[in-house]
Amino acid sequence: MSLLELDGVNSYYGESHILRDVTMDVEEGQIIALLGRNGAGKTTTLRSITGARPPDVRSGTIRFDGTDITGNPPENVSALGLSLVPEERRMFSNLTVRENLHVPDISRNLLNRLGRPMETGKTGLSDEEVYEQFPRLDERRDQKAGTLSGGEQQMLAIARTLKQDTELLMLDEPSEGLAPQIVQDVLDIIQRIADQGKTILLVEQNAAAAMKLADYCYVLDQGSIVFEGPSEELQANDEVRKEYLGV
Ligand code: ATP
What we know:
Elements: E1 2-13, E2 16-27, E3 31-35, H1 42-50, E4 56-64, E5 67-68, H2 74-79, E6 82-85, H3 97-113, H4 127-133, H5 135-139, H6 150-162, E7 168-172, H7 180-195, E8 199-204, H8 207-213, E9 216-221, E10 224-230, H9 231-236, H10 238-245
Parallel strand pairs: 3-8, 3-9, 6-7, 7-8
Antiparallel strand pairs: 1-2, 1-4, 4-5, 9-10
Helix pairs in contact: 3-6
The structure holds adenosine-5'-triphosphate (ATP).
Residues 13, 16, 18, 36, 38-44, 54, 205 line the site of adenosine-5'-triphosphate.
């Protein structure tokens, strides 16, 4: 069953037409990779899905779990169980690991007070479940986030997202800036989250790593999908890999 569907999506930054008729199908329980070079439109695709502005989605439809979410504000979209770990990770470097993990609770309370309650009362992992699943964060509970290594910060960003009730986890370049050995740790965590039944949409420039992890891949170039197929098919397709991914 499709959990997320994009049908002919066209997105713009002002008058710049960035996404061109993007159609994608994210099957429940799978790891889907969205690949492509710098500037291909990967982040724009994720932002279009979450309802972040900019960009403007001017035509096409985005459906999550059968509900049309095109143009819905981000807090409504995330309340449905769709979460994004953004590329820049957005840590509060002067707050501790424990405090950073409480940020989702604080935002939820704030939205309630503003009279814009999240639509579900459901929550994701408890603090204890987070520490069980991320032993590194457990060891560093009282350490300031700014003093964590890149890999640990990425783990914290993922853990914080899982504190919300999440069915579809989208990750924007989780391996960015990490040492190769740490990249593997982060990929193992993503695999484990998938094994626990979550659906994953993974945006990566590190195509080699993403292809290993993903069930199915989409390749974007200049805002258009130029390839889609099972990972093995992409791995075997030298032409597409060289032309659009440089690997
Ligand atoms: P990267 O790995 O660099 O993030 P990407 O595939 O995620 O690459 P996008 O960030 O989606 O690419 O960018 C797609 C295009 O949209 C690029 O040409 C970029 O310059 C342009 N763009 C991105 N953000 C904006 C913005 N806020 N305003 C105008 N143009 C933008």
